[in-house]
Design brief:
32% helix; 10 helices; Peroxisomal Thiolase, Chain A, domain 1; alpha/beta
Length: 322
């Protein structure tokens, strides 16, 4: 048995922040942002009621409804995030409480923008081992709270949101997967937590904001994602033309278009939402998947290749049949 996605859902904050809005509060412009990233707007939390948990729960409820699955039928909940509302308990436990998923084990995964794929591959492993049959995975981020809003090179790139998928054990679904990490690149995309603070060492330093070396991340992303796609297709004995859609992490339109050119494939095979969502980290792939499902672009039997990269450095990919 393998993991099969049977339902999707998503949640984006109500507030839409355009490039023009940002240009009024910092030294940037719509042309500067669009030409470098393809982003024209993003959704950001704008009230106390919008949180990482609230977005995760809304996306989860949509996915459960789409799958026609009750929360009590879930065996497992995994939340992929780097911006949970709490250090502990895990966001997945709070989602479990809100949903009333009383029979599910629940935990979080931190693999940055690769998190949703790490969660999907983890569920597939559980299913292959015969441990669980029905799971909910969520990618959710409130990145706006860890950004330096005076750093135009970083803050204009990101958005908030959540995407979810319900997974069921089935004869057909996941075809092949891979994931990896390289801690030697851990300094190119980083956000420090609290520093040591106890009776023997004290500090008044606040947690740092997100730092990114954009050029290094860009080069890594194009190279690694192209490699992942090629390795995964070879592993499955498939040609790129057999894939209906390539759903890549939505970090930057230039990265996605560069990968399409390297693979010599038409842009139509690479749906995007980075223009209106920005980079939503672990949420980007499940939000995109939910969008194309709602747009009725998917048919039973379609082949999807999901691939992403993130801080760590991490990367992951999954080839599956819809």
């Amino acid at each position: 048995m393998r993991a099969k996605i049977i339902g999707t859902g998503s949640c984006l904050p109500e507030k839409i922040v355009t490039n023009e809005t940002l240009s009024a509060i910092m030294d940037t412009s719509d042309q500067w942002i669009r030409s470098r990233t393809g982003i024209r707007e993003r959704h950001l939390v704008s009230s106390e009621t919008e949180t990482t948990l609230s977005m995760a729960v809304q996306a989860a409820r949509e996915a459960l409804s789409d799958a026609d699955i009750l929360p009590q039928q879930l065996d497992l909940i995994i939340v992929a995030t780097v911006s949970s509302d709490y250090i502990t308990p895990a966001a997945a436990c709070l989602v479990q409480k809100e949903l009333g998923a009383c029979h599910a084990a629940a935990f979080d995964i931190n693999a940055a923008c690769s998190g949703f794929l790490f969660a999907l591959n983890t569920v597939d492993a559980y299913i292959q081992a015969g441990i669980y049959q029905t799971a909910l995975i969520i990618g959710v981020e409130t990145l706006s709270k860890i950004l330096d809003w005076s750093d135009r090179s970083t803050c204009v790139l990101f958005g908030d949101g959540a995407g979810a998928a319900v997974i069921k054990a089935a004869e057909e679904g996941m075809i092949a997967s891979l994931q990896g990490s390289d801690g030697n690149g851990s300094d190119v995309l980083v956000c420090r937590n609290r520093t040591n603070n106890n009776p023997w060492i004290s500090t008044d330093k606040s947690p740092d904001y997100l730092y990114m070396n954009g050029q290094e991340v860009f080069k890594f992303a194009v190279k690694k994602e192209t490699e992942c796609i090629q390795i995964l297709l070879e592993k499955a004995g498939m040609e790129p033309e057999e894939v209906t859609y390539f759903l890549l992490h939505q970090a930057n339109y230039r990265i996605i278009s560069s990968i399409a050119r390297k693979l010599k494939l038409p842009p139509e095979k690479f749906p995007t939402n980075v223009d209106h969502c920005g980079n939503t980290s672990a949420a980007s792939i499940p939000i995109l998947l939910d969008e194309i499902r709602k747009d009725r672009k998917l048919s039973p039997g379609d082949i999807l290749l999901l691939s992403g990269f993130g801080a760590g450095l991490t990367w992951g990919a999954a080839l599956l049949r819809w």
